[in-house]
Amino acid sequence: MSEPVKVLGERRAFAPLLTVEGLQVRYGAIQALRGVSLQVGKGEMVALIGANGAGKTSTLRAVSGMLKAAAGRITLEGKDTTSLKAHQLVPRGMAHAPEGRGIFPNLTVQENLELGAYLRRDTARIEQDMEKGFTLFPVLKERRRQLAGTLSGGEQQMLAIARALLSKPQLLLLDEPSLGLAPQVTETIFRTLREVNATGVSVLLVEQNAHLALNAAHYGYVLETGEVVMAGAGKALLESAEVRRAYLGE
C-alpha cells in the first residue's frame, strides 16, 4: 500500500475545475501512473514536478485525452472526461502545449496560430485574440509570415503557447516550457504565463526546473515513480528541505 501523501502549507480556495482521481496509465506491461490524484481550480496555476520518468508527461497526456487511462477518473467542471479523446476536449476548454512544442514547421507563424482557432467561428474575436497573442509575444508579430520551422527554440515555444491560447481554453496544459531554452527566454515565458493565469486561465504545468515552477504556481504536486508523494502550496514546497535536496540540488 502507498504511503500517505505529505501535504505542506495551506491551499488557497479556488472553485474546482479539473479533478483527477486514482489515475493509472500503462504502456504494455509497464505501469507509468499508479493512482495519481490531483486538482486544479478555476484561475489556479498548479505545477507537477519530479525526476525524469516520474510520470509527469503521462499525467498530462492522460488528462488531455492523448493517452487512455487504465483506471481512475478525470472530471472537468464536474463532467466525466476520462474516456474522451483530445479532439473532444478542445471544445470543452482544454488546450495542451506538449513537450517538443508540436508546431507545424512548414506552415507560417500566422498559419500555426490560425490552426489554434480551428473550432471557432467568431472571426472578429479571433483577430482580437491573435493581437493579444502578439502583445504577449511581440516577436511573433515580427515573424508572422516566417515559416515556423525557422524560428529559434524560444520563439517556437512562444508560438506553441500562443496557438494553444487561441482555442480560448479555460485550462492550459504545458509540458516542459523551458526545455532547452536560454534563461532569459525562459524568464519571458514564465512572466507571460503569470499574465495569462492572471486573466483567469487555469494552468497545469509540468516543468523540470522545479524552482521556476514552484515560484510561479499557487500549488504543486511532487511525483515519484508514478505516484504523488508530496503536495502543497508552491512556496511551502520551495521551502521544504526534502524538495530542495531532491529537486533544487541543495
Structure description:
The chain has 250 residues and is of the alpha/beta class. The protein contains ten helices and eleven strands. The protein has helices at 56-63, 86-89, 109-116, 123-136, 138-142, 153-165, 183-198, 210-216, 234-239, 241-247; strands at 6-8, 16-27, 30-41, 45-49, 71-76, 79-80, 94-97, 171-175, 202-206, 219-224, 227-233. The strands form two sheets. The chain has a seven-stranded mixed β-sheet, sandwiched between helices. Strands 3-2-5-6 form a four-stranded antiparallel β-sheet, with helices on one face. The chain is globular, with a radius of gyration of 18 Å. It starts with 5 loop residues before the first strand and ends with a helix.
Alpha carbon gyration radius: 18 Å
* Quaternary structure state of the chains depicted: single chain
**How far apart are the first and last residues' alpha carbons, in Å?**
30 Å
Order of helices and strands: EEEEHEEHEHHHHEHEHEEHH
Given the structure, what is the number of helices? 10
Strand content: 25-35%
Protein name: ABC transporter ATP-binding protein
InterPro entries: AAA+_ATPase, ABC_branched_ATPase_LivF/BraG, ABC_transporter-like_ATP-bd, ABC_transporter-like_CS, BCAA_Transport_ATP-bd_LivF, P-loop_NTPase
Family: Belongs to the ABC transporter superfamily.
Keywords: Amino-acid transport, ATP-binding, Nucleotide-binding, Transport
